[in-house]
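Need tokens for this chain, all 256 residues.
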Amino acid sequence: MKGILAFMLLTALVFTSCSPVMIKIDEEMKDIKEELRDVKEDLNDLPHNIREELADALPPQPVQLSEEQMISAVTPHIKAFGEVISENFGSEIDIAGVCYAAYPEKNIDGIVPGELDDDEKVILVKDPDVLPDGYQIDGTYTSYIPVINYTDEDEAEERFSSLMNDDIFEDALDENFEEYKGKLYLVRGGRGYGAASVDVSSAEVVAVTGSGCTVKVKRLLFDEPDGEYFLNFKYTDNGFFLTDVKNYYVGNAENQ
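Here are the structure tokens for all 256 residues:
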């Protein structure tokens, strides 16, 4: 009996002596939680680009998705990349409104087909064979087709930049669109367009990392297999993002 009483007395002394420490730890935890809430609010107030830089500096997030889920998640990016390769950029066009650029004959030697410069007094005409006096069509017969679903080049660029790095599409987009007097045109010059494409249905996950994945898709030329694209994706809080592309063409062993 004395042993039991002694044990109870000792236990009481221990808990009594520890209680100030436990209270202090509990208070410190509350302070830490409040500080974390303040930090989170401060981060949310930062500009979007700064938050992206901070996210890149953090350890990579593990991808907790099956291959089927990953393919489903990156399919919009693959389709958009296919639009870059085929050089149509998902544009809806008014083919009946196709025009041609006519330039003053005195300036024709200095013109750059595909670029419309107001300073050169360029005009758009429906019939390249019917021109005002003193005007001439450029030798490539470059055509300009009105775009319906993009108001300007910035709107098209915004769509693609939300899915992939700018350097994947920017040069091609600049080459294929031209703005003139408040309208956006799809440019078609003296070369072939749309010969290359991507077989979206061939998408296959070939590598998974802690922060993303690599997807292989078939490149087609005139609807025939012509190589492969390896698309590298990064996983972020906003989902997948296409960071870069490696190209392997049939008959070309070098990495393009």
